[in-house]
Amino acid sequence: MEAVAVGDAAGEEAAALGQRLAAGGQGHVLRFWPELGGAARWALAAELRDMDVAEINRFFRRARGDGGSGGGAAGLDARMEPVPRDVLGSACRDRGLLPRWESRGLAEIAGSRVAALLLAGGQGTRLGVPYPKGMCDVGLPSRKTLFHLQAQRLRRLQQLAEEQHGTPCHIPWYIMTSGRTMESTKEFFLKHRYFGLKKENVIFFQQGMLPALGFDGKILLEEKGKIAMAPDGNGGLYRALGAHGIVDDMEQRGVQSVHVYCVDNILVKVADPRFIGFCLEKGADCGAKVVEKTNPTEPVGVVCRVDGVYQVVEYSEISLATAQKRGPDGRLLFNAGNIANHYFTAAFLKDVVNTYEPQLQHHVAEKKIPHVDITTGQLIQPEKPNGIKMEKFVFDIFQFSKKFVVYEVLREDEFSPLKNADSQNGKDNPTTARHALMSLHHCWVLNAGGHFVDENGTRIPAIPRLKDANDLPIQCEISPLVSYGGEGLEKYVKDREFRTPLIIDEDGIHELVKNGM
Q1: Beta bridge mates, 117
Q2: From CA 170, how far away is CA 197, in angstroms rounded?
Q3: Which of 246, 210, 211 is nearest to 119 (CA)?
Q4: What does the DSSP 8-state code read for residue 47?
Q5: 0.85 surpassed by pTM
Q6: Quick one: CA dihedral 47, 52, 58, 62, positive or negative?
Q7: Neighbours of 208 (CB within 10 A)
Q8: 99-113 burial code (b ≥16 CB/10 A, e <16)
Q9: Which of 82, 374, 464, 506 has the CA that lies 20 to 30 A from 10?
Q10: 411 burial class (0-12, 13-18, 19+ CB within 10 angstroms)?
């Protein structure tokens, strides 16, 4: 590459950057430097300052070497085994054990030994909104956002643990954002006064970014003075935990159990005491919460063993014949659907950060990446994949676990992801998320002895007749500050009849009659 001639204060640094980039075969990144203004030069220099070109080249070679799958997908179907029953706990099949697990989990929470860790790096692009997913309001009667619901669940859990054990406690909430979501997320929490949580117990940190690369390994430019960057996947968590001192912070606070989950599930039971109690009873260092996959072609990964090692196999990696296999009970053989909801001991996370993280390989996603043509300077909008983004997944570390367990829950109780904008035949959108939460809360009211009546005062059957697939659920919302998982509602609803929409919150019961007051 030609020497970079510059006459500004950043000149010397730019020359040094130019040499470093050229040595790694990435000198083209400064091709348009002479055309950039002072602010653009400063921004590009800042972006390149922290970039380890040799490491990026190494990541590319390793990822392209075997597709980033760790062991190659050859013959994967033959090497897969389902999760054995002895490591599986089930919210349905082990009902008798749930109170014990819950009690154990609440005791741990009461001792301030449990943390929640939220993966919140996702932008709401597919939802059609320009802000982080956690700030989405899906149209509940209360208009609460995902962040708001999760914060209130943590507050209720702290209250339950304190009531049972008589000692004040707190659940530190670690929130991993991406470069694109950090500032807006922090501002949102500040504006809402941390939703009633103590500021010192909400800890923000940022996942890393990696440049997008062409198929030849060359770094792509988004603009003449800007690298095309992408978050390094939710598995970038482990590197970020080390880089930002989060594992040390956990140790100082006495945290021993960590619940890791994704922001976009409206039903998530944050720091779920049953899940935590189950993992503690089993002596696990790593656990995965799953929902039963009922349809062979459902596009979710499955938790299973491959060559005796636990991992998540993506739906695209196995044949239809394997996906359709069923056990003697008629259930799908590979039915442990991964929902990005995990338990780790703090000690295991420390080992991962210090020992295992560098061994993780990147997964490669071929993408259509808009970029500046290095020769012409024109912005190109490709019609087919022209490059790769490299990422790690949060479940990549299952392989290092010494004692791995799986906890199966009901989908209608705990899993309704928000991924897409509302559309006529859509799924995983604001409408499906809102309906899932209201249907669950409807069940809670019925289970606590309450009833719903229509405009004529006639009781609505507990299981409505399905006249129409588009029937709307009963409009019912219960604040997490009133009930975490359906508990404690009898005093509000037992032997009472309600019209909808019904809201039960810390101020009492509200029946929002549409016509009149």
Answers
A1: 174, 260
A2: 9
A3: 246
A4: H
A5: yes
A6: negative
A7: 17
A8: eebbebbbbbbbebb
A9: 374
A10: middle
513 residue type, one letter: V
**Token pair recorded at residue 18:** 């130019």
Does residue 2 have a pLDDT over 50?
Answer: no
Q: How many C-beta atoms lie closer than 10 Å to residue 477's C-beta? A: 19
Write out the two tokens for 136: 């989405």
Q: Which of 160, 344, 107 is nearest to 235 (CA)?
A: 344
Mean pLDDT throughout 38-63?
92
Of the candidates 487, 478, 442, the residue with the CA atom closest to the CA atom of residue 460 = 442
Q: Hunting for tokens 């982080």 — which residue is that? A: 132
The pair of structure tokens assigned to 392 is 């790690």
Instruction: Report the distance separating Cα 517 and Cα 512, nearest Å.
Output: 8
Tens digits of per-residue pLDDT, 456-494?
999 998 875 544 445 678 999 999 999 999 999 999 999
Residue tagged 């990822």 (tokens): 63
pLDDT digits (tens, 9 = 90+) for 284-303: 999 999 999 989 999 899 99
User: 435 is written with which tokens?
Assistant: 């309906």
Residue 19: which H helix or E strand, with range? helix 11-23
Structure tokens at 514: 């549409």
Residue 500's SS3 state is coil
Contact of 138 with 434, CB cutoff 8 Å: yes
